[in-house]
Design goal:
The chain is an all-alpha fold. The protein has eight helices and no strands.
């Protein structure tokens, strides 16, 4: 199982990455304002399933390379570290605002909402690259991978669900708060700093 030191780094890192306004969070806010929080949860379920699949597939693939091709894994580790530092610097430099589409009062089926969330998570190449880069440093190959991965995925899903609920229920008040002053900029900078720190840790570990 993961030790408390690892969890102490992983939990705040992923939470700040999750809560930073992005595709899924903006989608949750848009749907929450237009069709209501309860129906928006169908999109959330699809998104959470997609994120879990991406996380498991990413770690399984990296673990296989780690065991069978250690030299290739070293290269992958450095590439992952570089990618995380790049993402962190990009988040520091970003000037983001929340831009919502027009409110829709049309009836949307549960299946359509579920599919929208699932496809948003699965078809996002940045999500795959992020998971491949972020998760392996928190996996100790000397111990059984399955329980470690289960714990990380559980934390990821809880963090994602919590943040999506905040966006879906926050509505216009949250939108105004995020667009006020430099609030989004500082959220990006906190998350970006954590990304750079994890990337440097991965490079020297």
């Amino acid at each position: 199982m993961l030790d408390f030191a690892v969890l102490g780094v992983f939990i705040p890192t992923f939470f700040f990455v999750s809560i930073t306004p992005g595709m899924c969070m903006t989608l949750a806010m848009t749907l929450g304002m237009s069709i209501g929080v309860r129906r928006t949860m169908w999109m959330m379920i699809g998104e959470l399933l997609g994120v879990a699949i991406v996380a498991v597939a990413a770690v399984a693939g990296v673990a296989s390379i780690m065991l069978n091709y250690p030299t290739l894994f070293s290269v992958l580790k450095w590439l992952g570290a570089g990618y995380l530092v790049y993402i962190g610097i990009s988040m520091w430099r970003a000037k983001a605002t929340i831009k919502l589409g027009a409110d829709s009062k049309l009836k949307v089926s549960r299946q359509a909402l579920f599919s929208q969330g699932f496809i948003t998570a699965i078809a996002n190449p940045k999500g795959w690259a992020f998971m491949i880069s972020l998760l392996p440093p928190f996996i100790n190959i000397d111990y059984t991978i399955a329980p470690q991965l289960s714990m990380l995925v559980a934390i990821i899903m809880l963090s994602e669900f919590t943040c999506m609920m905040l966006y879906a229920t926050g509505g216009k008040s949250l939108r105004l708060f995020l667009n006020q002053g430099d609030n989004i900029k500082w959220m990006n900078r906190i998350a970006g700093s954590l990304m750079v720190a994890v990337g440097m840790w991965l490079a020297v570990s």
